Amino acid sequence: MNPDDLMRVAQRARRETLRWVLLMTMNTARPSEATLAMLRGVAAAVYADATDNEIRRELDYLQGRELVSLRTDPLGQVRAKLERYGIDIVEYTIDCEPGIARPAAGG
To answer: Domains along the chain?
Structure first.
């Protein structure tokens, strides 16, 4: 693999892992919503250089797949909530399509 291919693979792995971390964090926060600050704190434990913009981009992706819902409160704080399909993904009750680095069941 050339260096550009390696970089693309690493970037993809980071995006997909971050999506899984965000889903798991929102699952832990249930039934409450997770704030961007909460999500950033957990994401930073995995990727110290994770940015709000990166987290928002992955939240938008998850929202597009109908796994989470997002809202901005009157103070401008972004809040994320795990939706039914998102819960099913983290609880391993449905198959997970590509794009999220969900570990194999039992692993």
So the answer is: 3-90 (1.10.10.10)
Instruction: Give dist(CA 81, CA 68) in Å, integer.
Output: 5
> Among 58, 47, 102, 107, which residue's Cα sits nearest to residue 80?
58
In the beta sheet, which residues pair with residue 81?
A: 69
Higher pLDDT, 107 or 73: 73
Does the pLDDT value for residue 97 go beyond 70?
A: yes
Task: Report the pLDDT averaged over residues 48-72.
Answer: 97
The closest alpha carbon to 67, from 43, 46, 40, 96, belongs to 96
CA atoms within 13 A on the CB side of 100: 23
Global pTM exceeds 0.90 = yes
Which distant-in-sequence residues (6+ apart) come within 8 Å of 65 by Cβ? 85, 97, 99
